[in-house]
Amino acid sequence: MNKFIVLTADITEELALGQKLxxxxxxxxxxxxxxxxxxxxxxxxxxxxxxxxxxLTSNALKRANASKEAKQFLDSTLKVGLxxxxxxxxxxxxxxxxxxxxxxxxxxxxxxxxxxxxxLKNCIGGILIMLLHPFRVGDYIIEDNxxxxxxxxxxxxxxxxxxxxxxxIILLPNGALADTSITNVTNEDNRRVELKVGISYQSDIRRxxxxxxxxxxxxxxxxxxxxxxxxxxxxxxxxxxxxMRFWTKTEDYWPVRWDMLEDIKYAFDENGIGxxxxxxxxxxDELERV
Length: 290
Prior knowledge:
alpha+beta, Helix Hairpins, 18% strand, three-stranded antiparallel sheet, Alpha-Beta Plaits
């Protein structure tokens, strides 16, 4: 009899608890819905504030004459940091304890570090690029590991964007750029042009050099205050290779190179200087008949 009474009391207590939870459920759902709505509003307002902060920072850097790559890098870093702070505040608004968030983040640091070690490497590489300035926005670079090349159009916290001459975009991880050698083609104001042209063995070497010299002297984009040289570079199988080296402005490098090659061809034709194609002389000895 006593057991029946105890069992009845337990069932009555559980039913009372269930009724209490059912009565509280609508209020709990309403509170959760209100919190979600508040968080959405906070996110929208926070996003606008973040954009405003980024704009004010960009204007301040512009007035301070900061470099373009510094503005791009700081903007991407600021964006990541501010959005992380906003998400943290939204989590607190949802009722998640800040200490709990900190504990979870601390315990997940190693896992996140292993999972995103490539991203962390790229981030550190971006910082090194900003500090050491191996290249800047607008420079033409060649990444020597995979021979990717182009004009630097943007430097972010994780990637550097290159625009190729045929209008393609290459994204290079900053970590890889920090670990490999880079050729900065446009870092200096002047660049040396080196050309080689083959002439036939029957042609006059002195005349060929005089023709090239006159072309160099007549070209206004070739710097005359720097030494230029015309020389025999090699005695090849089919031609005498005439080499030349001269200096021009970096932005004129390719136009000067292309124009000089064309002008040399026309000038050689006018002066009877042949440019031979590869050839081989074959001599046949007649065998004596036995």
